[in-house]
Amino acid sequence: MTIIESAVEINLPIEKVYAFLSDLNNYQELMPENIYNWSSTTNEASFTIQNMAKLAIKISSRIENQEIIALPTEKPPFDIELKWTVTANENGSTTAKHIISADLNMMMKMLAAGPLQKLVDYQTQKLKEILG
Predict the structure, then answer these.
(1) Which InterPro entries match (predicted)?
(2) How many CB atoms are closer than 10 A to CB 113?
């Protein structure tokens, strides 16, 4: 299993960061330009990644003010789990960590690990920009 992660500190209480991340409608704001055909509800989202694939995800579990896990609803090219964890810091801010776990063979790892790392880094930075 390949684990790709990125963390960011946000100057908001954990409840606000969790509330934003627990609604998939908000994720469109976290996506780079190569994502299009976006469609979402609170619990599900589908989109197309330019030159790659169409993906549909659904929140499979929520632990309030701790974590949100989303899994593909259709069979993806490889097994993948998208997870956000939130942790309260002593100064009143929140650390949000985006973790992608993907079952990649060696060839897929060479092709996908870089773009997936760019995606999680982009999404954590966008989260910080949006929530300040």
Answers:
(1) Polyketide_cyclase/dehydratase, START-like_dom_sf
(2) 15
